[in-house]
Amino acid sequence: MKMSTQDNKEHIQILENNREYYDSEKIAYLLPHDIDECGCLQKQHHASRYIFQKNFWAPVKKQLEEGITVLDSGCGPGSWTLDMAKDFPNSKFHGVDISNFFPDESKPDNCEFVIGNLTETLPFEDNTFDYIHQRLLILGLTNDGWEKCLSELLRVLKPGGYIEILEPNVKNLHNGGPLLEQVHIALAEMMESRDIPVTIAAELKNRVTEAGFVNAEETLDFLPLNHGGRGGELM
Ligand SMILES: C[S@@+](CC[C@H](N)C(=O)[O-])C[C@H]1O[C@@H](n2cnc3c(N)ncnc32)[C@H](O)[C@@H]1O
């Protein structure tokens, strides 16, 4: 897919092993910001859709078919946003991310992308969205960052709207294998040293409730690691 970049001069990037990373006090994100990373995120999205056989868990299918306004928070290269915009042409999809690698002009008309930092004021009015989806910010938000982000998402969600947040429980790996186990131990140490919560998946229900959301529910699904079959291969 061709990507377009909006102007994003605010954040200085540094090169390390030919990869580009954020170098800004305003951005805690640990992964690279470059075209290679976009490719990984796109593949990851397709693996997730194949394994779970769905793109969302919230009870919003009927509303999406009729036409609602949706935010993909921390959308990355917009793989989920684009898929959903194609599946639900009556709904309007907005993707926001600190990274400026967004799908090019061939995107559907019901899809818009804008640069924004989830730990600052987002470029949307109060009560804009009926449904907010946020996936895999585990390496991007500190404890303080989660608090600010959830408060901002509460501001832009309409009363009665749904928010869906998907995060992996990286402390609870089954059948990961010794190498992946080592990677996770090193990653967890790095996260802890930067005040990035490692166990965010298990904490989310409490955190969203503390932020002011109501009727929070938790669902646990399993990703196949070192399993056979197409799903295992994709992961
Ligand atoms: C692992 S990627 C997930 C992308 C997408 N949600 C998905 O599931 O394909 C995390 C994304 O969060 C974005 N991100 C990290 N910190 C952010 C922040 N403070 N504000 C906005 N986006 C942020 C990154 O740029 C990256 O695109």
Short description:
The chain has 235 residues and is of the alpha/beta class. The chain is 34% helix and 20% strand.
Mind telling me the CATH superfamily name?
Answer: Vaccinia Virus protein VP39
Please tell me what the overall shape is: globular
Structural Rg: 17 Å
For the record, give the distance between the C-alpha atoms at the N and C termini, rounded to a whole number: 21 Å
InterPro entries: Methyltransf_25 (IPR041698), SAM-dependent_MTases_sf (IPR029063)
Pfam families: Methyltransf_25 (PF13649)
Domain Methyltransferase: 70-161
Protein name: Methyltransferase domain-containing protein
Describe the structure.
With 235 residues, the chain is α/β, with parallel strands linked by helices. It has one domain: Vaccinia Virus protein VP39 (Rossmann fold, 3-Layer(aba) Sandwich). It has a five-stranded parallel β-sheet. Strands 1-6 form a two-stranded antiparallel sheet. Strands 2-3 form a two-stranded antiparallel ribbon. Strand 8, helix 4 and strand 9 form a beta-alpha-beta unit. The radius of gyration is 17 Å and the shape is globular. The structure holds S-adenosylmethionine. The site of S-adenosylmethionine has 19 residues, from helix 1 and helix 3. It comes from Mucor flavus.
